[in-house]
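// run 5 | inverse folding | seed 20
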């Protein structure tokens, strides 16, 4: 998946992780009296409390759009709780779906079913504006110092994908980015979502921009964000898949991404 080459393209690039070749019929959820989505309040921009203390975020708006697409909006509810309480609440019958970044692992799949991923986390390189890195990155970064956060998945990913670069590990992301701002390293490699907001922050001092990428890896970064339902309720997960597919096709999904990610992480 290549990022846009022009500034405008980079600002508005949106990903599509849904396979639009799938042909699904609209499900009938008429027998369900309510569908309760469970989430958290501490994972911006996906879930958070706004200035008025109301639940907001990309996931919250996605729930609303899914329910509209399935013609069940009056029966949809969303409730926030601590992350540790999400799965027990769902399996205990106090909710029908979780939209809060529950990881898809062998353990979680024993009691949960998942939709197809609707969002995946890209890894990105950030470089100084006065010293961009050209493609192909594997060649242009060979022998050059690249900063990473020590012990992170991105550090392991850099070693696997770009073995010829000189990996420099820093105790924290902030330490690594400070080294980039000073010009002590050629690039920083890390989470594209977090970096998309950092690039627009005062801390970045308008120093830097994305170079190359994005890079996706189930092995290092996981399978992404999905909606979880009870294992016995996989039919509901497929209904959500249908709705998300319709949102992608109608471009509403892209509109949501642009609302919460004005600088694309992709």
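// decoded
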């Amino acid at each position: 998946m290549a990022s846009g080459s022009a500034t405008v393209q980079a600002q508005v690039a949106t990903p599509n992780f849904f396979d639009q070749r799938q042909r699904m019929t609209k499900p009938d959820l008429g027998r369900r009296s309510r569908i309760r989505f469970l989430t958290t309040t501490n994972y911006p921009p996906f879930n958070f409390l706004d200035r008025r203390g109301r639940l907001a975020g990309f996931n919250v708006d996605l729930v609303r759009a899914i329910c509209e697409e399935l013609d069940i909006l009056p029966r949809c509810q969303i409730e926030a709780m601590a992350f540790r309480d999400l799965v027990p609440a769902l399996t205990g019958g106090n909710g029908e779906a979780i939209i809060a970044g529950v990881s898809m692992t062998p353990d979680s799949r024993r009691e949960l079913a998942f939709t197809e991923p609707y969002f995946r986390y890209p890894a990105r390189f950030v470089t100084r504006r006065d010293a961009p890195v050209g493609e192909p990155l594997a060649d242009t970064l060979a022998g050059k110092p690249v900063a990473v956060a020590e012990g992170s998945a991105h550090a392991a990913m850099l070693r696997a994908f770009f073995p010829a670069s000189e990996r420099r590990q820093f105790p924290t992301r902030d330490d690594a980015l400070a080294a980039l701002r000073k010009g002590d390293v050629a690039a920083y490699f890390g989470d594209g979502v977090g970096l998309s907001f950092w690039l627009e922050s005062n801390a970045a001092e308008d120093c830097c921009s994305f170079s190359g990428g994005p890079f996706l890896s189930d092995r290092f970064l996981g399978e992404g964000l999905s909606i979880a339902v009870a294992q016995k309720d996989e039919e509901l997960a497929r209904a959500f898949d249908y709705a998300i597919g319709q949102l992608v096709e109608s471009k509403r999904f892209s509109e949501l991404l642009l609302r919460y990610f004005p600088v694309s992480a992709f």
